[in-house]
Write a structure and sequence with these properties.
This protein has 456 residues and is mainly alpha-helical.
Length: 456
Amino acid sequence: MNEQMTERPWETLSEILKTSDTEELRRYLEALSPAETARTVSRLSSQEQSKLLMVLEPQDAADVIEGFSDTQAIELIEYLPAENAAAIVDEIPSDRQADLLAELDEKDAEAILKEMSPEEADAVRHLLTYDPNTAGGLMIKEYVAYKEEDRVCDVLEDLENNRGIYKDYHVQYLYVRDKEERLAGVLRIHDLLYAPRDALLNTLMIKDPLYVSVQATVGKLREFFSEHGLFGVPVVDTESKLVGVVLPVAVEEASVKRANRQFLGLSGIVGGEEFRTMPLLVRSGRRFSWLSINIVLNIIAASVIAYYQDTLVAVIALAVFLPMISDMSGCSGNQAVAVSMRELTLGLIRPKEILRVIGKELGLGALNGLGLGLLLGGVALLWKGNPFLGLVVGGALMANTMLAVTFGGVLPLALKSVKLDPALVSSPVLTTVTDMCGFFLVLSLATALLPRLAGG
């Protein structure tokens, strides 16, 4: 392998693909780290990606897909024949299966489900009925459960007979159900191995085990694992029936996904994740839709300046401070937005608690606004030697800071209450409001004190 191929592994992979040598493909991919595998496969053409997944064994293809985000994984499988896609999806853990199929076109998803094994398809359909950000949406169906009246020898025999299936399960505990399929207890592997072979499970299990509801949110699950530190927690439905198991890693991944969505929304990327391997028009659309809205909002903000243009011409020094005031106020408002979004995510605040947020932010806005106003007003005084210019600039910044943090704190709650995404909408709306109010406060105060300013 020459140096160029080492630095550009996708070219090497492309050459191997031409031979359709499955064993060489597998060895080459195993030599790459997960991150390098994702980078290498993403640089292949769509035809080469499809060929790669079809040439590899389903388990090996599933291992490749595991290193990709949901968005990228869907791009890899959506153009495969349903039969090939189903064989690969069949090898992926059930919670990830549901995530991928939920993102696919309904017709394509159903075609894949029909080609999957009936048991896997039923499990995925069950998971798809739950909100993806709840325990029901995050749980896996790959767990091992037995009946209360089963004996240790029955369990050991089942584990031996199905070890080929169970080896891919995250088996840290065995679960025990009663005759109505309700969660009755948890059995530790250690207790099972050293118990008499004829012992009943209901004499060995931990009774009244910890569990979570299918409706438990990501925030609640994070709190649970932080407090208890378990390898997994059983999930029960409204009838206390055992329906799945949530792993800590699934909760962490869900938290990271949510943070990424918020980051993308605040950055103006609309419609989900963006990667440079995506089609140009898709990427352009996801950016342009947000940018076009911002043009309209900026025109609205600029109209305030146009209305006071005579004042701005008379006191040209104000032009220096206008962007400072709008920017500083925007920064303060975005801090308040971030705190509100974090508290909403953790369940520490409800969308209806607007008055509480106003009360908390007004005091902080007044204190920070006073400090910032004194600093900027002092700069204006030192620069032009006119105390009235300092009063206008400092007073406007203080007032706008109070308004920005109050509005920024309340905005995510208001958007959440009307089912809009705070991460996507908060930033452009806040920017427009703080700009308009900042411009208005500076220029209206300056108009009122124009003789004092012009004379100075």
